[in-house]
Design a protein that fits this description.
The protein is α+β, with helices and mostly antiparallel strands. It has a single domain (6-131), classed as Dna Ligase, domain 1, CATH 3.30.1490. It contains 3 helices and 10 strands, in the order αβαββββββββαβ. It has helices at 6-20, 31-42, 115-121, and strands at 24-28, 46-55, 58-65, 67-68, 71-72, 77-79, 88-89, 103-108, 111-114, 125-131. Strands 6, 7, 8, 9 and 10 form a 5-stranded antiparallel β-sheet that branches. A 3-stranded antiparallel β-sheet has the order 1-3-2, covered by helices on one side. The N and C termini lie far apart (32 Å).
């Protein structure tokens, strides 16, 4: 069965894994998921990720969750732009999440990046998700 929102599925797996106290969450690999994981790692929301080859021309993405004082570092992770309603923004109208404490993951022509890096590069794009 095909999945209508693969990125939303990954975010839900991360959210559920952190609530269950898991250290590693697995999901199918895609370039967009890898790029989002790279942003989450750079911003300190996850420990890291690893690409595992499972054979048959398929790969899995293993995401290592991060905890501080027994609680998950990610307090909130939501999908903004969905397949039925894409949300785009330019650099001037890009919203701030929790007044700059949280981040927006934005897909720009220069790649997937956090909102503060997109503002510094003066580019807008599609708001994929928000993390706090």
């Amino acid at each position: 069965m095909t999945m209508s929102d693969p990125l939303g599925d990954m975010l839900t797996r991360v959210r559920n894994g952190q609530q269950a106290g898991k250290t590693i969450v697995e999901c199918p690999f895609s370039k967009v998921r890898e790029n989002v994981c790279n942003v989450l790692k750079d911003e300190g929301f996850i420990r890291g990720y690893k690409i595992e080859d499972i054979g048959g021309n398929k790969k899995n993405l293993q995401i290592q969750l991060k905890y501080a004082d027994g609680e998950g570092v990610i307090r909130q992770i939501n999908r903004v732009s969905k397949p039925g309603r894409r949300v785009y923004t330019n650099v001037k109208t890009m919203p701030r999440f929790y007044n700059g404490l949280g981040i927006l993951v934005v897909s720009t022509p220069q790649g997937v990046m956090a909102d503060h890096k997109a503002r510094a590069a003066n580019v807008g794009g599609e708001i994929l998700c928000r993390v706090f």
